[in-house]
Amino acid sequence: MREDRKRPIFSSSSILSYSLVVTVTMTMKKRMPPSSSPSIQQHFWLGLQLVLSLSVLVCVLALLRISSQSQSSASAFSSSGRSSSVEGTPKIAFLFLARSNLPLDFVWHAFFQNAEKRNYSIYIHSEPGFVFDKSTTRSPFFYGRQLNGSVKVEWGESSMVDAERLLLAAALEDPANQRFVLISDSCVPLYNFSYIYGYLMSSSKSFVDSFLDKKEERYNPKMSPVIPKDKWRKGSQWITLIRKHAEVVIADNAIFQAFKRYCRRGSALDPGRKQNVKAVVQKQHDCIPDEHYVQTLLSMSDLEDKLERRTLTYTLWNQSSDDKKRQSWHPMTFEYADASLQHINEMRNINHVYYETEYRTEWCRCNATFVSCFLFARKFSLGAAKRLLNEGLVGSFDASALLFSSS
């Protein structure tokens, strides 16, 4: 350990000043006319010495003060750096939301196979009682990574947000986890681990798709004043948070309770009953909690300027020619033909996102450098995921992993 050296009380400049005073005094003493009376000489020298001594004292005190301020400033900067640093290597926490198993586990096996264990951690929220072991997954990376206190999740209900919060809470227990990425069970990486790790760690912001909800009447006036309408936001649930923002989500209680009470998915109309469709729709507000909760919470916490207001997960919406499917707003599933190198590169080459409700173009940056918008994509079928591996887009992998059976 380095020892701090004690600095001398007098600097070289103060010593030089004192030497100059002594020299001037001796010179003037030699040049004093001999006819001057002793009384005048005595008063003159006393006054001169007093003035010069005070001047030297003022100089020394000023130098000491400057030195003290410099040391305290350096100490404060150093301690600030230490408080924000992480002991050891910072990790990415991959938070998987699964219905039961992970059908694309072989893709993620290849992904993690090319990574150093110290750079990541894995957490899985699955249905209660589901255990990841050699009988349920082809990849040892997922053995025992399920949460013990999982909840039953229903799409479009607040239980989905419950699951997200449980994943964040578990990951926050490890202080090395500095980035928190929410992943679906139909999601695949578009790059290898090294690229994604560098991308996320180079940015000090969270990646949260967040925009004004002007078209759909999902805001329930009963949420006010707990949730003001001007803070209401919408976006993709597939978020990437820095640690500080993950802590904000876990610390919240009031906002989530309001969501549980007033933000609910609208039930389908009963064709056998006579109903006022307009009245039912207005009453329901058809609110999907996982598309609003984190976005609105961070907006209310005045953290939007600390966000890259976009998701890192590519999703293709509403591309079906079937009118019924078009109204359902479910994401398109990528099949084998959609996973060619050309199609993947098209996803990779997207460098901006346009938000129609805000007339806003979000250019994709990391620390002011233009980058690809998306690191992940969903929803991928089994065949599309296998082609992704065959194209070598995720990294080298052991093909025998595909021969493992899961029951």
Calculate Rg over CA atoms. Answer: 33 Å
Helix percentage range: 25-40%
Q: State the helix count.
A: 12
The total number of structural domains is 2
**How many extended strands?**
15
The global form is globular
* Averaged pLDDT: 80
Order of helices and strands: HHEHEHEEHEEEEHHHHEEHHEEEEEH
Alpha-carbon distance between the two ends? 56 Å
Provide the structure class: alpha/beta
Can you give me a brief rundown of this structure?
With 407 residues, the chain is of the alpha/beta class. Helix content is 38%, strand content 12%. The longest helix has 47 residues, at 38-84.
What this model shows, in words?
A hairpin with a 2-residue loop joins β13 and β14 (369-370). The protein folds into 2 domains: 14-24 and 45-65, no CATH class; 89-268 and 275-403. Mean pLDDT is 80; it is low at 1-31, 66-84, 268-275, 277-283 and 402-407. A 4-stranded mixed sheet has the order 2-1-3-8. The protein has a 3-stranded mixed sheet with strand order 4-15-10. It has a two-stranded parallel sheet with strand order 5-9. Helices cover 38% and strands 12% of the residues. It has 407 residues and is α/β, with parallel strands linked by helices. α4 (159-172) crosses α6. The chain contains 12 helices and 15 strands.
